[in-house]
Design goal:
Blueprint lengths: L5 E3 L2 E3 L5 E7 L6 H9 L6 E7 L6 H6 L6 E5 L9 H6 L4 E4 L5 E2 L3 H11 L5 E9 L23 H11 L9 E3 H7 L9 H12 L2 E12 L13 H17 L6 H8 L11 H15 L4 H15 L4 H11 L3 H8 L15 H29 L2 H5 L1 H18 L1
Parallel strand pairs: 3-4, 3-6, 4-5, 8-10
Antiparallel strand pairs: 1-2, 6-9, 7-10, 8-9
Helix pairs in contact: 5-7, 5-9, 8-11, 10-11, 10-12
GO molecular function, one term: glycosyltransferase activity
Keywords: Coiled coil, Glycosyltransferase, Transferase
Pfam family, one: Glycos_transf_2
Length: about 400
């Protein structure tokens, strides 16, 4: 259904859709049809659906060709572009852009509720939703409890989000977003980032705009627990790349952040809670990286050292502030850089998203097996045959004990 049409000089002018849904697909033949249907079955219908298949090799493209809905524009790449979505954003004409992955699902009212919120809150840049986690078979991975699901977060201020990102990392579900098109395009895209492109984007977004989270599970985010096919799967190559990209993000985390928002976000973590001069705030940024950056150990030291080289080492006033107000000298910095050991894999935090989800999945499988075993034991122990044969089992136990003693 298109938005209301206007009559002018006997010509019908069709207004552009309010929402542009974009999806890049690659080798998701088993899931992509269900994903597409979850978009087409939205209660909010005023959208275009731009799909780009990234040269799939498993027949995903043929599944996409099987859809004839007039809202769909399907593109088929002749080579793999690693999910290049930026040109899809440029193609879009909607006021808002929604992003979905080709193996994830939306509940029917997702777009309706998000559009209603953004239309009534013009100062809000983007609207996310809570997300439930499912496996390859569509089974729930973990309960949608605030303590158990990384993607069920409360709403926070810009300052609170920035502090969370800095100390704990990403917790926003990419395929749950609805964002204003002009703002998304204005954020740009660093194609060098593969693991953490979303996280980098959220940091940039929150430096300048507020966001909102709908506290309803309107997105089903699929985790490939067996094949580890997700980009964020915990394999050595991805872990190393994640560390490298986190280091790059740490270098620019404070860039473009106003002093007012910086103080609001991080003052509770300052070494000097009264810091306010430009020199003092630079010192605090250095110490924040050293003390609180999300990845600890050697990467934390390296991130702090890189910031120091770039922002502090050549500034006499900053060096004087470090020495006189913080008791931190160049000799202390040399000791820091002399202690960095680049055993990168040892610095991967235990709470990374992929490891967390795998641990929860394994725990639930073990709990399920335990429950089955307890149920089987209960059924056996309460059965009539088990009760009737109890005297015979006691007699056999007695004979075994006495037989053992006679042998000794």
């Amino acid at each position: 259904m298109l938005r209301p049409r206007e009559q002018f000089d006997s010509e019908v002018i069709v207004l552009p859709p309010l929402v542009s849904v974009v999806m890049s697909s690659y080798n998701h033949k088993a899931f992509v049809a269900e994903t597409i249907w979850s978009v087409l079955n939205q209660t909010f219908e005023d959208f275009e659906f731009i799909i780009s298949d990234d040269h799939s090799e498993d027949g995903t493209d043929e599944v996409i060709r099987g859809f004839s809905d007039k809202r769909i524009t399907a593109l088929f790449q002749t080579e793999n572009t690693f999910g290049l979505n930026s040109f899809l954003y440029e193609m879009s004409v909607g006021k808002y852009i929604a992003i979905i992955h080709s193996d994830d699902l939306w509940l029917p009212k997702k777009l309706e509720k998000q559009v209603a919120y953004l239309e009534s809150h013009p100062d809000c840049a983007a609207c996310f939703t809570h997300a439930a986690l499912i496996d390859e078979h569509g089974n729930a991975i973990c309960k949608s409890d605030m303590k158990e699901n990384l993607f069920c977060q409360p709403n926070r201020t810009q300052a609170e989000w920035l502090r969370y990102f800095f100390t704990k990392g990403n917790c926003l579900c990419h395929p749950s977003i609805l964002i204003r098109r002009d703002i998304l395009i204005g954020l740009g895209r660093n194609r060098a980032l593969r693991q953490l492109q979303d996280f980098s984007k959220w940091v940039l977004l929150l430096k300048h705009h507020p966001i909102h989270i709908l506290l309803d599970e309107l997105t089903l985010h699929r985790r490939h627990m067996v094949t580890h096919a997700n980009t964020s799967a915990t394999v050595p190559e991805n872990s190393l790349r994640t560390l490298a990209e986190m280091y790059c993000i740490s270098e620019t985390f404070f860039d473009g952040l106003s002093d007012e928002l910086f103080v609001e976000a991080f003052q509770s973590l300052f070494r000097n809670s009264n810091a306010k001069t430009p020199e003092e705030l630079l010192c605090e940024k250095f110490f924040l990286l050293l003390d609180h950056w999300v990845f600890g150990g050697n990467q934390r030291k390296l991130s702090a050292a890189a910031f120091f080289y770039r922002n502090c080492g050549a500034d006499k006033e900053v060096l004087a502030t470090l020495r006189e107000q913080y008791g931190y000298t160049l000799q202390d910095f040399y000791s820091l850089t002399g202690s960095i050991q680049l055993n990168w894999l040892s610095d991967v935090p235990p709470y990374t998203e992929a490891r967390y989800l795998e641990a929860v999945s394994q725990a639930e499988k073990l709990q399920s097996k335990l429950a089955q075993a307890e149920k089987a034991y209960s059924e056996i122990s309460n059965s009539t045959s088990w009760k009737i044969t109890k005297p015979f089992r006691m007699l056999m136990d007695c004979l075994r004990r006495h037989g053992g003693k006679s042998k000794r």
